[in-house]
Amino acid sequence: MRAFVLSGYGGPECAGLTEVPQPTPRANELLVRVHAAGLNPVDYKTRAGDLKIIHRYPLPIVMGNELSGVVEAAGDAVTRFAKGDRVFARVDKKAMGAFADYAVVQEDLAAPIPASLDFASAAAVPLAGLTALQALRDELRLSAGDRIFIPGGAGGVGTFAIQLAKHLGGYVATTASSRGEALVKRLGADVAIDYTRERFEDKLSGYDCAFDLIGGDTLARLWPVLKRGGRVVSIAGMPEPVTARKDLEAGSGLAALFWAASLTTRWRAARHGVSYRYLFMHPSGAELAYLGSLIEAKKLEIVIDRVFPFAEAREAMAYLETGHAKGKVVLAMA
Protein backbone atom coordinates (compact mmCIF):
# COMPACT_ATOMS: atom_id res chain seq x y z
CA MET A 1 0.00 0.00 0.00
CA ARG A 2 1.02 3.64 -0.38
CA ALA A 3 2.21 5.47 2.72
CA PHE A 4 3.87 8.77 3.58
CA VAL A 5 6.89 7.58 5.53
CA LEU A 6 9.29 9.43 7.82
CA SER A 7 12.79 8.04 7.25
CA GLY A 8 14.82 10.60 9.22
CA TYR A 9 14.50 13.86 11.11
CA GLY A 10 14.99 17.12 9.27
CA GLY A 11 13.60 18.91 6.21
CA PRO A 12 10.95 17.95 3.63
CA GLU A 13 13.30 15.43 2.01
CA CYS A 14 13.07 13.25 5.15
CA ALA A 15 9.51 12.11 4.39
CA GLY A 16 7.93 10.86 1.21
CA LEU A 17 5.52 8.45 -0.46
CA THR A 18 6.58 4.82 -0.71
CA GLU A 19 5.14 1.30 -0.63
CA VAL A 20 4.84 -0.52 2.71
CA PRO A 21 3.03 -3.68 3.88
CA GLN A 22 -0.61 -3.34 4.92
CA PRO A 23 -0.98 -3.36 8.75
CA THR A 24 -2.83 -6.12 10.59
CA PRO A 25 -5.30 -5.16 13.34
CA ARG A 26 -4.93 -6.59 16.83
CA ALA A 27 -7.90 -7.83 18.86
CA ASN A 28 -9.04 -4.34 19.94
CA GLU A 29 -8.26 -2.57 16.67
CA LEU A 30 -9.95 -1.68 13.40
CA LEU A 31 -8.33 -1.90 10.01
CA VAL A 32 -9.52 1.21 8.21
CA ARG A 33 -9.32 1.87 4.50
CA VAL A 34 -8.32 5.53 4.67
CA HIS A 35 -10.25 7.91 2.42
CA ALA A 36 -8.83 11.17 3.81
CA ALA A 37 -6.35 12.36 6.42
CA GLY A 38 -5.92 15.74 8.08
CA LEU A 39 -2.61 17.58 8.32
CA ASN A 40 -1.55 19.43 11.46
CA PRO A 41 1.47 21.40 12.69
CA VAL A 42 2.45 18.40 14.82
CA ASP A 43 3.19 16.56 11.56
CA TYR A 44 5.93 18.88 10.33
CA LYS A 45 7.21 19.39 13.87
CA THR A 46 7.57 15.62 14.18
CA ARG A 47 9.38 15.44 10.83
CA ALA A 48 11.73 18.23 11.87
CA GLY A 49 12.61 16.40 15.08
CA ASP A 50 11.20 19.15 17.31
CA LEU A 51 9.28 16.61 19.41
CA LYS A 52 11.99 13.97 19.86
CA ILE A 53 12.34 14.84 23.53
CA ILE A 54 8.71 13.78 24.00
CA HIS A 55 8.61 10.75 21.75
CA ARG A 56 11.36 9.38 19.54
CA TYR A 57 9.72 7.18 16.91
CA PRO A 58 11.42 4.07 15.54
CA LEU A 59 12.26 4.91 11.96
CA PRO A 60 11.07 4.46 9.31
CA ILE A 61 7.46 5.08 10.37
CA VAL A 62 4.21 6.01 8.61
CA MET A 63 3.23 9.56 9.51
CA GLY A 64 -0.22 11.07 10.13
CA ASN A 65 -2.39 11.64 13.18
CA GLU A 66 -6.03 11.80 12.05
CA LEU A 67 -8.12 10.09 9.41
CA SER A 68 -11.49 9.17 8.05
CA GLY A 69 -12.41 6.02 6.17
CA VAL A 70 -14.29 2.74 6.12
CA VAL A 71 -13.73 -0.25 8.38
CA GLU A 72 -12.19 -3.03 6.31
CA ALA A 73 -11.82 -5.53 9.16
CA ALA A 74 -12.20 -5.63 12.94
CA GLY A 75 -10.26 -7.48 15.62
CA ASP A 76 -11.90 -10.27 17.60
CA ALA A 77 -12.49 -8.06 20.66
CA VAL A 78 -14.13 -5.19 18.76
CA THR A 79 -17.85 -4.76 19.59
CA ARG A 80 -18.83 -1.26 18.44
CA PHE A 81 -17.87 -1.34 14.77
CA ALA A 82 -18.14 -3.74 11.83
CA LYS A 83 -16.88 -3.97 8.28
CA GLY A 84 -18.32 -1.18 6.13
CA ASP A 85 -18.80 1.36 8.95
CA ARG A 86 -17.64 4.91 8.24
CA VAL A 87 -15.32 6.11 11.02
CA PHE A 88 -13.02 8.96 11.90
CA ALA A 89 -10.29 9.07 14.54
CA ARG A 90 -7.31 10.76 16.05
CA VAL A 91 -4.95 7.78 16.04
CA ASP A 92 -2.65 6.69 18.86
CA LYS A 93 0.00 9.41 19.09
CA LYS A 94 2.68 6.85 19.93
CA ALA A 95 2.03 5.04 16.64
CA MET A 96 0.76 7.57 14.02
CA GLY A 97 0.00 5.86 10.67
CA ALA A 98 -2.85 7.92 9.19
CA PHE A 99 -1.05 8.94 5.98
CA ALA A 100 -1.58 5.62 4.22
CA ASP A 101 -4.10 3.66 2.19
CA TYR A 102 -4.82 1.53 5.28
CA ALA A 103 -4.34 2.21 8.99
CA VAL A 104 -5.08 0.46 12.27
CA VAL A 105 -7.07 2.34 14.90
CA GLN A 106 -7.91 1.32 18.45
CA GLU A 107 -11.65 0.85 18.80
CA ASP A 108 -11.97 3.32 21.68
CA LEU A 109 -10.30 6.09 19.62
CA ALA A 110 -12.77 5.87 16.71
CA ALA A 111 -16.24 7.34 16.29
CA PRO A 112 -18.94 7.08 13.61
CA ILE A 113 -18.73 9.78 10.94
CA PRO A 114 -21.81 12.04 11.04
CA ALA A 115 -24.11 11.20 8.13
CA SER A 116 -23.91 14.75 6.79
CA LEU A 117 -20.11 14.69 6.36
CA ASP A 118 -17.97 13.59 3.44
CA PHE A 119 -14.62 11.96 4.16
CA ALA A 120 -12.52 15.10 3.62
CA SER A 121 -14.60 17.09 6.11
CA ALA A 122 -14.56 14.24 8.63
CA ALA A 123 -10.77 13.93 8.45
CA ALA A 124 -10.45 17.61 9.37
CA VAL A 125 -12.16 17.19 12.74
CA PRO A 126 -10.38 14.83 15.17
CA LEU A 127 -7.12 16.46 16.24
CA ALA A 128 -8.09 20.12 16.01
CA GLY A 129 -11.61 19.58 17.30
CA LEU A 130 -10.53 17.51 20.29
CA THR A 131 -7.73 19.96 21.09
CA ALA A 132 -10.17 22.86 21.20
CA LEU A 133 -12.75 20.93 23.21
CA GLN A 134 -10.29 19.72 25.84
CA ALA A 135 -8.63 23.11 26.19
CA LEU A 136 -11.85 25.10 26.54
CA ARG A 137 -14.10 22.74 28.47
CA ASP A 138 -11.65 20.76 30.59
CA GLU A 139 -8.63 22.99 31.17
CA LEU A 140 -9.98 26.55 30.97
CA ARG A 141 -13.38 25.46 32.32
CA LEU A 142 -15.04 28.07 30.14
CA SER A 143 -18.57 28.90 31.25
CA ALA A 144 -21.36 31.22 30.21
CA GLY A 145 -20.35 34.87 30.35
CA ASP A 146 -16.59 34.28 30.42
CA ARG A 147 -14.56 36.50 28.13
CA ILE A 148 -11.92 34.55 26.23
CA PHE A 149 -9.16 35.64 23.88
CA ILE A 150 -8.19 33.17 21.13
CA PRO A 151 -5.34 34.56 19.01
CA GLY A 152 -5.08 32.97 15.58
CA GLY A 153 -8.76 32.17 15.21
CA ALA A 154 -8.70 31.50 11.46
CA GLY A 155 -6.40 28.46 11.67
CA GLY A 156 -7.27 24.79 12.04
CA VAL A 157 -7.70 24.71 15.82
CA GLY A 158 -8.89 28.31 15.94
CA THR A 159 -11.93 27.76 13.72
CA PHE A 160 -13.12 25.00 16.07
CA ALA A 161 -12.19 26.95 19.21
CA ILE A 162 -14.24 30.02 18.31
CA GLN A 163 -17.35 27.94 17.69
CA LEU A 164 -16.94 25.77 20.78
CA ALA A 165 -16.28 28.80 22.97
CA LYS A 166 -19.54 30.36 21.73
CA HIS A 167 -21.34 27.05 22.30
CA LEU A 168 -20.12 27.11 25.91
CA GLY A 169 -21.43 30.65 26.34
CA GLY A 170 -18.22 32.64 26.04
CA TYR A 171 -17.61 36.12 24.66
CA VAL A 172 -14.84 35.64 22.10
CA ALA A 173 -12.10 37.94 20.88
CA THR A 174 -9.62 36.78 18.28
CA THR A 175 -6.99 37.96 15.83
CA ALA A 176 -6.97 37.46 12.08
CA SER A 177 -5.66 39.13 8.98
CA SER A 178 -8.02 41.12 6.81
CA ARG A 179 -8.35 37.97 4.70
CA GLY A 180 -9.55 35.95 7.70
CA GLU A 181 -11.75 38.57 9.40
CA ALA A 182 -14.98 37.63 7.63
CA LEU A 183 -14.37 33.96 8.45
CA VAL A 184 -13.86 34.39 12.19
CA LYS A 185 -16.88 36.68 12.46
CA ARG A 186 -19.02 34.17 10.60
CA LEU A 187 -17.93 31.52 13.08
CA GLY A 188 -19.10 33.68 15.96
CA ALA A 189 -16.20 35.89 17.11
CA ASP A 190 -17.50 38.96 18.94
CA VAL A 191 -14.27 40.90 18.42
CA ALA A 192 -11.85 40.42 15.51
CA ILE A 193 -8.56 42.34 15.58
CA ASP A 194 -6.50 42.66 12.40
CA TYR A 195 -3.05 41.76 13.70
CA THR A 196 -1.39 43.32 10.65
CA ARG A 197 -2.64 46.77 11.68
CA GLU A 198 -3.33 46.70 15.43
CA ARG A 199 -1.80 45.25 18.59
CA PHE A 200 -4.34 43.20 20.49
CA GLU A 201 -2.99 44.28 23.89
CA ASP A 202 -3.98 47.86 23.02
CA LYS A 203 -7.57 46.77 22.40
CA LEU A 204 -8.29 44.10 25.02
CA SER A 205 -8.18 43.99 28.81
CA GLY A 206 -9.89 42.28 31.73
CA TYR A 207 -10.41 38.95 29.98
CA ASP A 208 -11.04 35.81 32.03
CA CYS A 209 -8.93 33.41 29.99
CA ALA A 210 -6.99 32.86 26.79
CA PHE A 211 -6.36 29.91 24.51
CA ASP A 212 -2.97 30.55 22.89
CA LEU A 213 -2.54 28.98 19.46
CA ILE A 214 0.51 30.93 18.32
CA GLY A 215 3.12 31.12 21.10
CA GLY A 216 6.26 33.23 20.73
CA ASP A 217 5.74 36.98 20.76
CA THR A 218 1.96 36.57 20.89
CA LEU A 219 2.15 34.65 24.17
CA ALA A 220 4.69 37.12 25.58
CA ARG A 221 2.28 40.02 24.90
CA LEU A 222 -0.82 38.19 26.07
CA TRP A 223 -0.57 38.50 29.87
CA PRO A 224 -1.83 42.12 30.27
CA VAL A 225 -5.01 41.19 28.39
CA LEU A 226 -6.12 39.04 31.33
CA LYS A 227 -7.47 40.00 34.70
CA ARG A 228 -5.76 38.72 37.87
CA GLY A 229 -6.83 35.15 38.49
CA GLY A 230 -7.08 34.60 34.73
CA ARG A 231 -6.17 31.37 33.00
CA VAL A 232 -4.04 30.63 29.94
CA VAL A 233 -3.86 27.35 28.07
CA SER A 234 -1.37 27.15 25.21
CA ILE A 235 -0.64 24.61 22.48
CA ALA A 236 2.21 26.65 21.05
CA GLY A 237 4.19 27.90 24.03
CA MET A 238 6.53 26.00 26.31
CA PRO A 239 5.49 22.69 27.96
CA GLU A 240 5.47 22.77 31.77
CA PRO A 241 5.53 20.10 34.51
CA VAL A 242 1.80 19.30 34.38
CA THR A 243 2.22 18.62 30.66
CA ALA A 244 4.71 15.88 31.46
CA ARG A 245 2.78 14.31 34.32
CA LYS A 246 -0.81 14.57 33.05
CA ASP A 247 -0.66 14.68 29.24
CA LEU A 248 2.40 12.52 28.59
CA GLU A 249 2.28 10.31 31.72
CA ALA A 250 6.02 10.82 31.98
CA GLY A 251 8.31 10.62 34.97
CA SER A 252 10.04 13.23 37.09
CA GLY A 253 12.90 13.65 34.63
CA LEU A 254 10.79 15.12 31.85
CA ALA A 255 8.76 17.10 34.37
CA ALA A 256 11.98 18.66 35.70
CA LEU A 257 13.13 19.48 32.17
CA PHE A 258 9.80 21.15 31.39
CA TRP A 259 9.97 22.99 34.73
CA ALA A 260 13.26 24.58 33.68
CA ALA A 261 12.22 25.22 30.08
CA SER A 262 8.97 26.94 31.09
CA LEU A 263 10.38 28.93 33.99
CA THR A 264 10.35 32.30 32.20
CA THR A 265 6.83 31.78 30.88
CA ARG A 266 5.49 30.73 34.28
CA TRP A 267 7.28 33.64 35.97
CA ARG A 268 5.66 36.10 33.57
CA ALA A 269 2.28 34.53 34.20
CA ALA A 270 2.75 34.70 37.97
CA ARG A 271 3.75 38.39 37.77
CA HIS A 272 0.35 39.10 36.25
CA GLY A 273 -1.53 36.81 38.65
CA VAL A 274 -2.39 34.38 35.85
CA SER A 275 -2.12 30.57 35.65
CA TYR A 276 -0.34 28.92 32.71
CA ARG A 277 -0.87 25.44 31.28
CA TYR A 278 0.53 23.81 28.14
CA LEU A 279 -1.78 21.16 26.71
CA PHE A 280 -1.05 18.02 24.69
CA MET A 281 -4.46 16.73 23.70
CA HIS A 282 -5.45 13.08 24.09
CA PRO A 283 -7.37 10.94 21.57
CA SER A 284 -10.90 9.94 22.56
CA GLY A 285 -13.58 8.24 20.52
CA ALA A 286 -16.26 9.27 23.01
CA GLU A 287 -15.34 12.94 22.82
CA LEU A 288 -15.09 12.73 19.05
CA ALA A 289 -18.62 11.31 18.98
CA TYR A 290 -19.72 14.34 21.03
CA LEU A 291 -18.21 16.65 18.42
CA GLY A 292 -20.03 14.61 15.80
CA SER A 293 -23.32 15.29 17.57
CA LEU A 294 -22.62 19.04 17.45
CA ILE A 295 -21.88 18.77 13.73
CA GLU A 296 -25.11 16.87 13.12
CA ALA A 297 -27.01 19.55 15.07
CA LYS A 298 -25.36 22.20 12.83
CA LYS A 299 -23.68 23.79 15.84
CA LEU A 300 -20.17 23.18 14.53
CA GLU A 301 -18.94 24.08 11.05
CA ILE A 302 -15.86 22.46 9.53
CA VAL A 303 -13.59 24.87 7.68
CA ILE A 304 -11.28 23.41 5.05
CA ASP A 305 -8.70 25.53 3.29
CA ARG A 306 -7.44 23.01 0.71
CA VAL A 307 -7.68 19.33 -0.16
CA PHE A 308 -4.57 17.84 -1.78
CA PRO A 309 -4.36 14.47 -3.55
CA PHE A 310 -2.28 11.93 -1.64
CA ALA A 311 0.36 12.04 -4.37
CA GLU A 312 1.02 15.66 -3.34
CA ALA A 313 1.48 14.98 0.38
CA ARG A 314 4.86 16.70 0.49
CA GLU A 315 3.40 19.80 -1.19
CA ALA A 316 0.49 19.76 1.25
CA MET A 317 2.91 19.72 4.19
CA ALA A 318 4.86 22.62 2.70
CA TYR A 319 1.66 24.60 2.24
CA LEU A 320 0.64 24.02 5.87
CA GLU A 321 4.09 25.13 7.02
CA THR A 322 3.58 28.56 5.45
CA GLY A 323 1.07 29.29 8.21
CA HIS A 324 -1.40 30.90 5.83
CA ALA A 325 -4.12 28.21 5.79
CA LYS A 326 -7.58 29.33 6.84
CA GLY A 327 -9.01 26.21 8.43
CA LYS A 328 -7.71 22.72 7.77
CA VAL A 329 -5.51 21.14 5.10
CA VAL A 330 -6.54 17.62 4.10
CA LEU A 331 -5.14 14.75 2.01
CA ALA A 332 -7.54 12.74 -0.17
CA MET A 333 -6.35 9.17 -0.68
CA ALA A 334 -8.75 8.18 -3.47
TrEMBL record:
Originating species: Bradyrhizobium erythrophlei
Listed name of the protein: Alcohol dehydrogenase
A GO molecular function held by the record: oxidoreductase activity
PANTHER family according to UniProt: ALCOHOL DEHYDROGENASE RELATED, RETICULON-4-INTERACTING PROTEIN 1, MITOCHONDRIAL
Pfam families associated with the record: ADH_N (PF08240), ADH_zinc_N_2 (PF13602)
Residue ranges occupied by any Enoyl reductase (ER) domain in the UniProt entry: 10-331
Source domain of life: Bacteria
Entries under InterPro entries matching the protein: ADH-like_N (IPR013154), ER (IPR020843), GroES-like_sf (IPR011032), NAD(P)-bd_dom_sf (IPR036291), YIM1/Zinc_Alcohol_DH_Fams (IPR050700)
Gene3D superfamilies on file: Medium-chain alcohol dehydrogenases, catalytic domain, NAD(P)-binding Rossmann-like Domain
Listed transmembrane segments: none
